[in-house]
Amino acid sequence: MQPRAKQAPYQTPIHRRSFIKGILEAGACSIVASNPLLAQSRKGKATAGDKVRLACCGIGNRGKDVVLALHATGLCKIVALCDVDMGAPHTLEVLKKFPDAPQFQDFRKMLDKLGKDIDAVSIGVPDFAHFPIAMLAMSMGKHVYVEKPMAHTFQEVELMMQAERKYQVAAQMGNQGHSEGNYFQFKAWTEAGIIKNVTRITAFMNSGRRWHGMKVSGLLPAQPVPASLDWETWLGTAQFHAYNKGYTNGDWRSWFDFGNGALGDWGAHIFDTAHEFLKLGLPEEINSLKADGPNEFIFPQASTLCFKFPKRGPMPPVELTWYDGVKNLPPLPDQFGDAVVDPNIPPPTAGKIETKAMAQGKVIYGEGLTFKGGTHGATLQVIPEAKAKEMASKLPPVPPSPSNHFANFLLACQGQETCRSSFAVAGPLSQVMVLGVIAQRVNAQLKFDRATSQITNHPIANALLVGPPPRKEWEQFYKL
C-alpha cells in the first residue's frame, strides 16, 4: 500500500442544495432539485407522550435485534423498514411483525419519500455503512441510533460527532451495557474514590471469530449478485468490490475494507465505562505487540495491542492492553477466580461466543484495589475474594438504571433523558478502536498527536485515518 497524498481530513460542509444536485448527477436516487426535504428543520419532532416515529435501516441479523428491542420499549412506532436485501430469509421476522410499514432497499429513497413522517432512524448495518445513513438522517434533523462502532474510519467518527453538535439531535451508539449495572456501578465507584489512580487495564476477547482459520491472498472472486440484493447500495461509500457471499451477513467483519475486527466489535462492550469515567480520551501511542498471520485483507488470527494514554489532570497515565485470538490469553492476577459473565449477551449471527471460560473481560489495576469485570452490563468485582469481603461495607450504593439503552435513546428523542452513549461520549471511544485497527493493519508502533489528530511517525497509517476515497456518487456525504 502506498501512502495517499496529504489532504485535509475534515472537509468544509457544503450547502444542502449542492448535496441534492450531487446526488442527482450521480443518479443515486429520485430526489428532485425542488424538493425541500434536505433543507427542512427539525419539524415534527416527537415530544413527551408521543411515540417516536422510527424508520429502521438494517432489519436482519443484529439489525433485527435492534428493531425488536426498540419496539419492545413501547415508546416508538415503526413507520418504515429498509434493507438492501429486503425479503431475504434473515429479514422475514421483522417484515412479518410490521407488515404495514413501507419497505425500501435504499435509505436515500426512504428519507426522500417519508422524511416528514420520520423522527428517528435506527442503523443496524455493517460497520462501514453506518456513516452515510447517519449523516443524511442527522442533516435532516432525525435522531439516530447507530450500532457500535460508530463508523469505519477515524474521519467518519469525527464528522458524525460534528453533525451531532451541528444538528442538535439525539444520537446513541449501540453498546447497550452503557445503560446497565456496569455503567452505574463504574460511575458510582469512581465518584466515591473506590476506583482511583488506575494505571493499567487488561482487556481481552478470546472467543473464536469468523476469520480464524481463513487463508486469504486476495479479494474474493466474483459471484452472481442475488436478484433480491441491491449490491450497489450495500457497498455504499466503499470502493467497488465484486459481489461474493463471503462479504455479507456478518462475514464482512473479517475484512479490513468493511469491518473493525474483534476490537471494534467488542471493545465498546469491554472498556467503554473505563474509557468514559477515567476520561481516557485519545491515546498518544499505540503499539502492535503481536499480530499472528498479518494479512492485507483480513484481521490477524491473534493480536495484542498496547494503548498509552497520558496523564489527565490529577489522574496518572494509563496503559490499556488488548488481547484477541483463541490462544492469545492475557496474564491474569493470582486468585482471579471465575470469569464475570453477562447472561444477556446477544447471540452472534454465526458461530458461538464462549462465556464459560475466560473468553472476554477486563482487569483494572487501581490504587490499592484490583477489579475484574466482564462485558456489556456485567458489574465489576474486587479481587481477591478476601479483599472483596473486606470492602463490602465500604462500597457506595449503585442506583438502578431508569431505562435500558433503547428506551434511553427514545426518551432522549422526546427530550426526557440524555443519551448515555451519545456521539460525544462514544466518538472518542470509537476512535480509540479505529486507531487499534490501524495498528493491526500496519503492525507497527504508532505515535499519535492528540492536538492535531495525526499519526506522526507512519505515513501509511496516517492516511488510514481517512481511508480510501469514497466512490464519486458518495462523496457528498462527507460534506454534510
Strand-and-helix sequence, N→C? HEHEHEHEHEHEHEHHHEEEEEEHHHEEH
Number of strands: 15
Number of helices: 14
CATH class: Alpha Beta
CATH architecture annotation name: 3-Layer(aba) Sandwich
CATH homologous superfamily identity: NAD(P)-binding Rossmann-like Domain
Distance between the ends? 29 Å
Helical fraction:
25-40%
| CATH topology (level 3) name | Rossmann fold
Structural class: alpha/beta
Summarize the structure in words.
It contains 14 helices and 15 strands. It has helices at residues 16-26, 62-72, 92-97, 107-114, 130-139, 154-167, 181-191, 231-235, 261-270, 272-277, 385-391, 405-413, 423-442, 459-463, and strands at residues 52-57, 76-82, 103-104, 120-123, 143-147, 171-174, 200-205, 285-292, 302-309, 318-324, 360-365, 370-373, 381-383, 445-449, 454-455. It has one domain: Rossmann fold, CATH 3.40.50.720. The two termini are 29 Å apart. The relative contact order is 0.17. With 480 residues, the protein is α/β, with parallel strands linked by helices. The strands form two sheets. The protein has a nine-stranded mixed β-sheet. A six-stranded parallel β-sheet has the order 3-2-1-4-5-6, sandwiched between helices.
